[in-house]
Amino acid sequence: MKLSKFARTLFSLMIISTLLACLGLSFAIGQSRRLPPTTNEKKNKRPAEPGKEGEKPDEPLPPDLTGKPQDAEKITVTTQIVNVDVVVYQKKSGQIVTGLKKENFTIFADGAPETITNFSTPEAPITVAMVVEYSKWSEMFGAYGSGGYDPGTYEVIRPVAMFLSQFVKPPDDYVSVVAFDIRPTTLTDFTNDPTRIGQVISLLLRNSPAFRETNLFDALKFTLVGGRGDSVVLENSKDEKSDFSGLVSVQGRRRAIILVASGIDTFSKINYGDARKVTQNAGIPIYIIGTAELFYKKYEAYLDATDSLTGMPGRMTFLQAKNTLKTFASETGGAYYPVTFPGELPKVLGSINALLRSQYSLAFNPGDVHDGKQHKIKVSVDVNGDGVNDDKEYVIQARQFYNSPKPDGSTKP
């Protein structure tokens, strides 16, 4: 009887011990359950690679770069040396003045004289980018302007073909051609090969514009400062897109843009003010052949004052377009030629060619100026070398502004 009571007591203790052990195990399992991480470390770290044991993690990005991904997409033009291409000709006769020396010029920035650090005479070969408006609008303007006697695209193709075939002189001169509608497309990179030039003209003649939009501002920015765009058409690249460095990257050569366009901008990503900053900063003269002149003169009385519901540009749009082209030309030291009839082209292209080959290349260092502001440039000339400027008798064609870098070392386009 006593043995049986002892056995029952022992059995009860064993059951209680077992229950306590189960409860402890359950509690331990609950306590060992994984908690959400309290830091930004990955939940499952990869094993350290051989040879990198104890290596310090990458340093975080500086605070001024984090949270600003849009800054990486901005294309900027920064410079410490300000280049100024100058053409001098007589006011009365229009005769271009050659044979001038560094001592004949004076550059003023905001009214203060600057030291001319670089100077070259008009002997360097030219490097030209031709930018052509090739859109449904330009095709319509040309067709209605000619009364249907010529295909509409001839108005923009004719000056391009004439310049490429008559004024590009191998082996020293180089030219590239960019056509634009809703976006710019490089037809050929810089070349002086007559065969390639002939292919460009043939390409423009055999094709028709695809879009009505004319994004002039985007095309100028792309041509000057570069960016990512359609691959060069005549190179038959396997890649649909390519990166382009722009005309500002071409150094040591006489550079210019010849723009053949109506001046109308319909859908650009940048606005007129941004486009002006791009052209001012680039320091490259823009020579402009204005199109749609005959169309406007014939149909001005029939156009609405503002754009119609169908998108047809109104009189105000055409006037703004002309003012835009005049501004781009004057601020960059180029020239604007509104062409009405095809017979005017030989004289206009001859004048552009003469101005291109008569540019004096000057440069000055503005010093440690980092205020992000626009500064006015004025060039004076002393043709006779008598110490008195001859600005009243001569026209000095040069860029009018430059934009200094901001304190952080960058300038917006």
Commentary on this structure:
The structure is a single chain. The N and C termini lie far apart (105 Å). The strands form 4 sheets. The chain has a 6-stranded mixed β-sheet, with helices on both faces. The chain has a 4-stranded antiparallel β-sheet with strand order 4-13-1-15, with no helix packed on it. Strands 3-2-14-16 form a 4-stranded antiparallel β-sheet. Helix 2 (136-145) packs across helix 7, helix 3 runs antiparallel to helix 4 (194-206) and helix 5 packs parallel to helix 6. The protein has helices at residues 2-31, 136-145, 154-166, 194-206, 216-225, 272-282, 293-299, 315-332, 345-356, and strands spanning 82-90, 105-109, 112-114, 116-120, 126-133, 174-180, 184-191, 227-230, 241-244, 254-261, 286-290, 335-338, 360-364, 374-381, 394-397, 401-403. The chain is built from 9 helices and 16 strands. The chain folds into 2 domains: 73-121 and 361-403, no CATH class; 126-357, 3-Layer(aba) Sandwich (Rossmann fold). A hairpin with a 2-residue loop joins strand 2 (105-109) and strand 3. It is globular, with a radius of gyration of 34 Å. Helix content is 30%, strand content 22%. It is α/β, with parallel strands linked by helices.
